[in-house]
Amino acid sequence: xxxxxxxxxxxxxxxxxxxxxxxxxxxxxxxxxxxxxxxxxxxxxxxxxxxxxxxxxxxxxxxxxxxxxxxxxxxxxxxxxxxxxxxxxxxxxxxxxxxxxxxxxxxxxxxxxxxxxxxxxxxxxxxxxxxxxxxxxxxxx
Length: 141
What we know:
Layout: H1 10-53, H2 59-65, H3 75-92, E1 99-105, E2 109-117, E3 128-136
Antiparallel strand pairs: 1-2, 2-3
Helix pairs in contact: 1-3
């Protein structure tokens, strides 16, 4: 004859609890991985924009004197090239909600600040990722 105790079914409850904890852990890890990947993609987009902007050198000075310390960026050209790179990248691979927070250029630097909302699979998060990239034109002779 089987004796009934107060512990009957406790293993089932423990198993259900463990499965619940595992599901929460998996969802948190998945969402964190998605956010990290989105940040990497956004950083790559900002880096590509700065690299494109750094191609906006003063061609007249460059052709006249070659690559010297007198070689500088034309800020309007650098900004235009950087913005064109961002727009082309958006056509090729859209990042929903991408915003160009700042795109600045001077005769020796280009800086891009981009922002986009975080997209997650399990937990609704109302946050954004902001990245900054900058490049500097230095002559090394």
